[in-house]
Amino acid sequence: MLAGNKIDYRGRHSFVTGGSQGLGFSLAAELVERGSSVTICARNESKLVAAVEQLEKHRSSDDQFIKYVSADLTDYQATLSAVHIESPPSLIFCCAGCSTPGWFNDMDIETFKSDMDANYFSALHTAKAATRAIVDNDIKDAHITLVSSVLGFPLGVPGYSSYTPAKHAIRGLGDALRTELKLYGIHTHVYFPGTIYTPGYETENKTKPALTKKIEGAADGLTPEQCAKALLSGIDKGEYHITSDFVGSLIKNLSRGASPSNNVIIDTLLFIIAAIALPFWRMYMDWLVTKERKQRTPN
Question: Number of helices and strands (H, E) in the chain?
């Protein structure tokens, strides 16, 4: 069981990627309300300007600063400059990313490369640049949070072949950093949300196969605000792998490996439930795909 260490956000500087909309924006708003200064980072400057105006409404102290930096996080040097543009942050949230669903056989190879850049390499670059800033400035009690997805667990949902590998890579990065960054007193967290009702979700639905939508329809999504609160709650509890719903907790505990448990008793019970239930869900997905094949190639 992990010991919680609730963070006092007052006087902190939080750096949030993907902060112009969706989870990143809602997380930034929650951080501002809790007293943290915030720098949000994304590509689109006009969206960043609008986001900062909205974040000002959540300000809890005149001592806070709320700023933005426009940067291409797929470029490491640009990311390095972005992280160092203001006073070094002690709380880093890697929320930037996107999904381009489609059938593996139909998608252009460039889609796989761009999804890996937007999701994995943006997180890698941010974590690397932030670690350098934290170590160089001897910042104490720093936290780096990577945002993966429930698809970062071994699920294999059809339609996400360009997105799933990137989210698995983020989990792998987190596993490597969790132990190594203890050298510098840095806490590492990985968040695995399910469906989040964001503008990005609306965009991905434009290319998402009907079969994928049908599979996702079995699970309810959450708002960005709900996910932001769940993420910060997990950090305050000292959790490494953080989920925000029951299904995510089931999948997490069946595939935790050597990762630390959040609560030995509860996680063991969830493991037992998942070991019984998830094979049936996998068989349901296999059945849907087989049905799709028969519809495509009728006798």
Answer: 11, 7
In sequence order, the 6+-apart residues with CB closer than 8 A to the CB of 73 are 17, 41, 79, 82, 96, 121, 122, 125, 126
Report residue 84: phi and psi, to 5°: -95, 10
Amino acid at position 82, single letter:
A
Say if residues 52 and 76 touch (Cβ distance below 8 Å): no
Amino acid at 253: N
Do residues 209 and 159 touch, judged by C-beta distance below 8 A? yes
Q: Higher pLDDT residue, 231 or 3?
A: 231
Domains of the chain: 13-246 (3.40.50.720)
pLDDT at 84: 87
Catalytic positions, written as ranges: 163, 167
pTM for the full predicted model: 0.92
Asked whether 100 and 162 are in contact (CB, 8 A), the reply is yes
Once rounded to an integer, what is the mean pLDDT over residues 242-248? 89
* Distances, alpha carbon 230 to alpha carbons 66, 104, 142, 243, in Å: 22, 32, 19, 8
